[in-house]
Structure formats: C-alpha cells, structure tokens
Amino acid sequence: MNSIFFSKYNPQENDKSGFEKLLEIFTQLLTYTNGDFNEAIQWLTELDKEYNLTNEEYGIGDFIEDLKSKGYIDENNQTGEIKITSKTEQTIRKKSLEEIFGKIKKSKQGNHQTFKAGMGDEINPETRPFQFGDTMEQIDFTASIRNAQVNHGIDSFSMNEGDLEIRETDFKAQTSTVLMIDISHSMILYGEDRITPAKKVAMALSELIKTKYPKDTLDILVFGNDAWSIEIKDLPYLQVGPYHTNTVAGLELAMELLRKRKNPNKQIFMITDGKPTCLKQGKNYYKNSFGIDRKILNRCMSLATQCKKLKIPITTFMIASDPYLQKFVQEFTEANNGKAFFANLDRLGAFIFKDFESGRNKTML
C-alpha cells in the first residue's frame, strides 16, 4: 500500500544546491558511521537508489569531487585512502548544533551576567569618582580630562585625584564544564543506538560553547573500564567498546580536569545509560554486572560527596528507564545535591540545553 506524506513547505529547501542537500545527509551518516568516509558514502549510495536523491545533472560522483575541491575530504595519493578533514568535523558539529538547539532564539540568556561591578568584560556606561585601590586601566581619561578642564581651566591645566573618573566593567562569570560520556557496551545493546545521540549532544554543546561562550571551557571525557580525555575533533569517530561502566574513573578524571581550571564556577554533566559496574584496583579490575554492587556504589557516593564539598554540581542524564537504575541515580544526586534527568534519546539534547542555559542565569560564586 502506497503512502503519501505531507510536510510544511519550506522555500529555503528549494534554494539548496544538489551539493548542499547531499552534504546535509552525508554529515548525518558520518555521525552514525563514526567518521568512516567509505561506509558513509556506501550508505548514501544505497539511499540514493531507494529515494532518488540525485539526478542526471548531479550524481554521487559529482558530490565526491565537490567534497575534494571544497576541502571536506582528503585523499592519500599513495594508498588511495580517503578521510574527512577538520572542515568536515566542524561542519558536523555545526549541523548537530542546528539540529538540537536550532529552535532556540537568540536572547540575553546565558551570558553569565551578575549584578556585581568590577574587573570584567562588559563596559558599564556609568562612571564614578576615583577611589583608593582603583587601577589605571579603569580610568576614563576622556571624562577625566574634561573634568580637569572644567575644574582648573585650559590656561592652567592640571589634573588631580578629584578630576579622575572610573568606568567600571560588569563582571561576567565564566564556567568550566566537563562532559562525561558513557561508552560501555550497553550503549548499543538491545538494538538501541544510544551513543549517537550522546555524540550529537557533545558536538552541539562544544560548538555552542566555542561560538557563544568562548571564555568558558569544556573538557570531554569518555569512560568504560577506564576513563580518558578526548578532543572535540575526536567526537565524530567516537565508538562504544566492549567495556564495563567505571563511573568512578570518570568522576576522578573529571575532578582532576576541573582542579586545573581557574574559574570558580565548575560543573559536571554525565550521560549514561546504566549503573556503575567496575572499579580499578591497582592493575586489576573489580567487576560486577549483576545488580548494584555496594562496594562500587559506596565509592561513587564518596566522590559525589567530595564534589559537593568542592561546590561542583553533577547533572546526570540517565537514558534508561529501569526503576532500580533510577533509584541509584536519585541516591547519587542526593549525595551531590546535584540534578538528574531521566531523558529519552529524542529529548536528550533539549534537557541538556535547558540545564546548561539555566545555570548561566544564576550568579554562581
């Protein structure tokens, strides 16, 4: 039985060239294929066969040539291997940002603004008289010279402390964020792809911070049996491994990364779908995949409490609905005095965005 699907007319869609339309699909496929160009092109070719994405004027071969000429892919002349470039990696991040946060209108939210005045980023139009302790950088020389001329006259021009005016800058709080991504095997179990939405959120969040909050910092780490940092450019290639879930290792690394950051405002976002099942003791791993292990749980709770003492809130995004897993997250959140969201995959990005933005509407000192 044939079906007819209706969608809202979008005039901008018709303005896109054949390359732009294919690029939009291609960047999505690269996220699912972990940045593998050959596999993504194969998928694109199969989609073309089924949905007639190309025509006689512009085919997949033309698209590949355009990718080369526009700097999206690089071919090794000796081996013939084709890899995506940093330009493509950035394009994937931008597409993820548009997909997840595109409906959010520009606003004044998220600027870390406080009502305190002092050394900061935004120039305050108000001025005040000089006070002991003010620095040279704060002096408004135009206003001060004008005061001196009015107070002492041009012929006997002089300037003293009473003539000086100070132009303050509004303090703009900065935030250091660590994003923890679970890459244990359960992130692809039971026929559900949980790692791809997590990657998209990480790419969107990183692009958001780089473009809208350039003075913030974002560290990204992954955790399985162990935990390690990854670069933003590594996100498209991120894959799930045959790992258990060593949440403790992830939290310890997150705390270490934040310890190096000078910003007073620090936070941890953790995306996971399961309970902690692993600890590293020396060179050996202590593992238990059956239920909540008290030994592992106690260590997690201890770290949550330490973060609370250091004023580092942990926001957990649990993408699993098992009642006993939710109970663990609730206990963990209470120990940290943080927050928890039980998000489905479709709404994961919206949940993280709201929490990320709401934190910037508060004065965190």
Quickly list its features.
365 residues, alpha/beta, Arc Repressor Mutant, subunit A, Rossmann fold, 3 domains, six-stranded mixed β-sheet, three-stranded antiparallel β-sheet, 11 helices, flat
Structural description of this entry:
With 365 residues, the protein is α/β, with parallel strands linked by helices. It has 3 domains: 13-84, Orthogonal Bundle (Arc Repressor Mutant, subunit A), CATH 1.10.10; 114-172, no CATH class; 175-361, Rossmann fold (3-Layer(aba) Sandwich). Helices cover 40% and strands 20% of the residues. The chain has 11 helices and 13 strands. The chain has helices spanning 11-15, 18-32, 37-51, 60-69, 86-101, 141-152, 195-212, 247-259, 294-309, 323-336, 348-358, and strands at residues 73-75, 82-84, 113-118, 122-129, 165-172, 175-182, 217-223, 227-230, 265-272, 278-281, 284-287, 314-318, 339-342. The protein has a 6-stranded mixed β-sheet with strand order 8-7-6-9-12-13, with helices on both faces. A 3-stranded antiparallel β-sheet has the order 3-5-4. A two-stranded antiparallel sheet has the order 1-2. Strand 6, helix 7 and strand 7 form a beta-alpha-beta unit. Helix 2 (18-32) packs across helix 3 (37-51) and helix 7 (195-212) runs parallel beside helix 11. The model is unreliable at 103-122 (pLDDT under 50).
